[in-house]
């Protein structure tokens, strides 16, 4: 029987199967992830095969299907190991506010670069529309112009007042979606609007905590009414930047990516090289200056900038 992992505690997994039945599962056998060492073999979002255990309500996971993408967290103490937070994401949205708190362009760009590196389609949701002054709305239009021009869809909502939420509901339909954002941008408010009854259906065994739950918090997927899942990642509110080779960084800026072949030198870093097509495009206003600044900032390792 095929299923989708919607919750994990490290040793037990909740798997949603056809007909939306949720079964508590354990792992049998070894599952390895190509290229990286992981602390957890199976993650939320994984597609698996399960076999029901005779005379019990539980099952074992017998097969892990290939992942189209995944996001990881590096283990703090075991530097070479990584924890897979979630797999098979269809899209990731950054919740952005221009005031209280202000999300900087640098922060937006780091999120987008990370999503590119993970191979996850990304977009921006501007929240707290109800608070925008006329000047705020002008800045909003500028921001939206910067990002829609390079292919990132932008939405504007008020989670508090329920403005434009139907658009977001349509976006989520039948997709696995990750929301990210600074603390205070209204992520919880938005999620509560989208999933009023944010309570996971549980399997036959009611006391989940009996099953050796780790102290670590793992990601969870919440079913969206009407189809689709929202990934909740306790502990990581923000999709941090992952290790990217400096030489590769330009590939994760779509507007640079399309010009990389036009640079005079194939190993151009787009910093001070003659005949750099990226810098020319910046000068001609074809590449937004703030995006180029973010490129330099990430290139120079100023990752703490917000
Ligand atoms: P989180 O930290 O991202 O989960 O943010 P919360 O959902 O806890 O929201 C932080 C604060 O912003 C709360 O006081 C919310 O009521 C408020 N808030 C959230 N969405 C909106 C909105 O659309 N408009 C306004 N004015 N306030 C909002
Ligand atoms: Zn260049």
Can you put this structure into words, describing what you see?
The structure is a single chain. This protein starts with a strand and ends in a 7-residue tail after the last helix. Helices cover 22% and strands 24% of the residues. The chain is an alpha/beta fold. Mean pLDDT is 87; it is low at 199-216. A hairpin with a 3-residue loop joins strand 2 (13-17) and strand 3 (21-27). The strands form three sheets. It has a six-stranded mixed beta sheet, with helices on both faces. The protein has a five-stranded mixed beta barrel with strand order 1-2-3-6-5. Strands 4-8-7 form a three-stranded mixed beta sheet, with no helix packed on it. The structure holds guanosine-5'-diphosphate (GDP) and zinc ion (ZN). Zinc ion (ZN) binds next to helix 6.
Span between N and C termini? 46 Å
**Name of the CATH superfamily of the largest domain:** P-loop containing nucleotide triphosphate hydrolases
Overall shape: globular
Helix amount, in percent?
Answer: 10-25%
Structural classification: alpha/beta
Number of strand elements: 14
Name the ligand types.
Answer: guanosine-5'-diphosphate, zinc ion
- Total helix count? 7
SSE order, one letter for each helix or strand: EEEEEEEEEHEHEHEHEEHHH
Average residue pLDDT: 87
Task: Describe the structure in brief.
The chain is α/β, with parallel strands linked by helices.
Blueprint (SSEs and pairs):
Layout (H helix, E strand, L loop, with lengths): L1 E7 L4 E5 L3 E7 L9 E2 L8 E6 L6 E6 L5 E5 L6 E7 L3 E6 L8 H14 L3 E5 L7 H16 L4 E3 L8 H8 L3 E5 L6 H8 L25 E4 L5 E4 L21 H4 L19 H7 L5 H11 L7
Parallel strand pairs: 3-6, 4-8, 9-10, 9-12, 10-11, 12-14
Antiparallel strand pairs: 1-2, 1-5, 2-3, 5-6, 7-8, 13-14
Helix pairs in contact: 1-7
Zinc ion binds next to helix 6.
